[in-house]
């Protein structure tokens, strides 16, 4: 495990205890048994639809020093989606009130400013006791909770491994890309 300090990548790989290896992609792993509403159109977004894919989960904000990471996240998604990567954004106003808009405002900003096409959930809470259950579980598994916007969790294809990366880890960071490639194999 590498700990974030002064802008260096944090990597905390944790294998889920008790999860069966080789879970069929048609089955929904317990970690993905959560559903949200999509940011773009308000339709249901069950995470089970991503079973069998490598999932990069990112809490986002429109008015943050890390907001330019949207560009890299979209490029990463466009480049690797056909190989099985899905990026899922979770807008949150938890840190510095840097996501004050409503869902339509956030969706318009992401689409018009960064051309975001990867799936995004409606605005949600990702930190503290009021965090949504999915984020609470990710933090529990990795021992790493979001401390700011653009914290990342990478989930392997059968949702038995989760790796956490801090906000300082850019979408093209070597450690992140290497771990994605490893999970895609």
From TrEMBL:
<dbReference type="InterPro" id="IPR000889">
    <property type="entry name" value="Glutathione_peroxidase"/>
</dbReference>
<dbReference type="InterPro" id="IPR029759">
    <property type="entry name" value="GPX_AS"/>
</dbReference>
<feature type="signal peptide">
    <location>
        <begin position="1"/>
        <end position="26"/>
    </location>
</feature>
<dbReference type="Pfam" id="PF00255">
    <property type="entry name" value="GSHPx"/>
</dbReference>
<keyword id="KW-0732">Signal</keyword>
<keyword id="KW-0575">Peroxidase</keyword>
<comment type="similarity">
    <text>Belongs to the glutathione peroxidase family.</text>
</comment>
<dbReference type="InterPro" id="IPR036249">
    <property type="entry name" value="Thioredoxin-like_sf"/>
</dbReference>
<keyword id="KW-0560">Oxidoreductase</keyword>
<dbReference type="GO" id="GO:0004601">
    <property type="term" value="F:peroxidase activity"/>
</dbReference>
<protein>
    <recommendedName>
        <fullName>Glutathione peroxidase</fullName>
    </recommendedName>
</protein>
């Amino acid at each position: 495990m590498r700990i974030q300090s002064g802008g260096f990548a944090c990597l905390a790989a944790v294998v889920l205890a008790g999860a069966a290896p080789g879970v069929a992609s048609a089955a929904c792993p317990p970690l993905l048994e959560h559903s949200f509403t999509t940011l773009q159109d308000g339709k249901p977004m069950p995470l089970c639809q991503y079973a069998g894919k490598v999932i990069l989960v990112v809490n986002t904000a429109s008015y943050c020093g890390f907001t330019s990471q949207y560009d890299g996240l979209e490029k990463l998604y466009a480049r690797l989606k056909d190989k099985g990567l899905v990026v899922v954004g979770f807008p949150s106003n938890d840190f510095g009130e840097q996501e004050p808009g409503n869902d339509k405002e956030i969706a318009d900003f992401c689409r018009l400013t960064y051309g975001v096409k990867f799936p995004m959930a409606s605005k949600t809470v990702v930190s503290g006791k009021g965090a949504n259950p999915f984020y609470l579980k990710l933090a529990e598994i990795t021992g790493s909770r979001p401390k700011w916007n653009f914290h990342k969790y990478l989930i392997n294809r059968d949702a038995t491994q989760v790796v956490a990366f801090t906000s300082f880890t850019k979408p093209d960071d070597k450690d992140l890309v290497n771990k994605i490639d490893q999970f895609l194999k």
